[in-house]
């Protein structure tokens, strides 16, 4: 029995709320159960130096956790003077995932910066950030189209992410903190709406896990990402 009482292939309650931040070109409050992440997309009329005069744009991401997003207060990284390795790794993952969704040659020499701020954490913050970040990015691209900056939406596919793991040697979908903190293995899957694999991160916390167990986690990830994609499309009004 999972601590939450969910079935092994059951997601936490999932929601996306668009238009959450008044001033951002795109925004979304995403909730995976008790994990809540505010994702905003900001349009900048410049690209990184290495893309100047190429006609190509860029999508990048930043990630952070508020001091009381977790059970005990954590210091702001700005107060410590540097980002942790974990933070840098997560925001690079978010950026890679979201760039997979967009034809960067069609947004002009502009940069879209996705800020993912964890308001409340209960496991799966990076996967929630990717899933909500896509919704915020899509809203930003719509804003650009409506302003005449681009003719059509340069979206190649949807992108969603979910965690899976071995809890008490049983494959389960969408780990919350109680499961993630004691899992025998955990993995993060980033998949497109058409089933393509963008990235997989997987780690055994103790004993190595078998290929068959990994394949079972992959099957659960597809179930979860299908559910996330369906909700993303519903909120964005996509078919």
TrEMBL record:
Phosphate binds at residues 86, 124-126. GO terms for molecular function: 3'-5'-RNA exonuclease activity; tRNA binding; tRNA nucleotidyltransferase activity. Gene3D superfamilies: GHMP Kinase, N-terminal domain. Residues 10-138, 157-222 form the Exoribonuclease phosphorolytic domain. Keywords: Nucleotidyltransferase, RNA-binding, rRNA processing, Transferase, tRNA processing, tRNA-binding. It catalyses: tRNA(n+1) + phosphate = tRNA(n) + a ribonucleoside 5'-diphosphate. GO terms for biological process: rRNA 3'-end processing; rRNA catabolic process; tRNA processing. Its EC number is 2.7.7.56. Phosphorolytic 3'-5' exoribonuclease that plays an important role in tRNA 3'-end maturation. Removes nucleotide residues following the 3'-CCA terminus of tRNAs; can also add nucleotides to the ends of RNA molecules by using nucleoside diphosphates as substrates, but this may not be physiologically important. Probably plays a role in initiation of 16S rRNA degradation (leading to ribosome degradation) during starvation. NCBIfam families: RNasePH. Belongs to the RNase PH family. PANTHER family: EXOSOME COMPLEX COMPONENT (PTHR11953), EXOSOME COMPLEX COMPONENT RRP41 (PTHR11953:SF0). HAMAP family: RNase_PH. Homohexameric ring arranged as a trimer of dimers. This is Ribonuclease PH. It comes from Rhodothalassium salexigens DSM 2132.
């Amino acid at each position: 029995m999972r601590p939450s009482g969910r079935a092994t292939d059951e997601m936490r309650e999932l929601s996306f709320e668009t238009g959450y931040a008044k001033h951002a070109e795109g925004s979304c409050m995403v909730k995976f159960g008790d994990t809540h992440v505010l994702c905003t997309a900001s349009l900048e009329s410049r690209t990184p130096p290495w893309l100047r005069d190429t006609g190509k744009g860029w999508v990048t991401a930043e990630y952070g956790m508020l001091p009381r997003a977790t059970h005990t207060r954590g210091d702001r990284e700005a107060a410590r003077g540097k980002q942790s390795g974990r933070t840098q790794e997560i925001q690079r993952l978010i950026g890679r995932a979201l760039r997979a969704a967009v034809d960067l040659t069609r947004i002009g020499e502009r940069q879209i910066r996705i800020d993912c701020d964890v308001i409340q954490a209960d496991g799966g913050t990076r996967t929630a950030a990717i899933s909500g970040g896509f919704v915020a990015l899509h809203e930003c691209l719509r804003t650009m189209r409506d302003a005449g900056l681009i003719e059509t939406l340069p979206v190649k596919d949807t992108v969603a992410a979910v965690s899976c793991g071995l809890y008490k040697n049983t494959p389960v979908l969408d780990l919350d903190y109680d499961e993630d903190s004691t899992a025998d293995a955990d993995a993060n899957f980033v998949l497109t709406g058409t089933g393509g694999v963008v990235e997989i991160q997987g780690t055994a916390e103790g004993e190595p896990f078998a290929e068959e167990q990994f394949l079972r986690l992959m099957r659960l990830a597809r179930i979860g990402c299908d559910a996330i994609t369906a909700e993303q499309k519903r909120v964005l009004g996509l078919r």
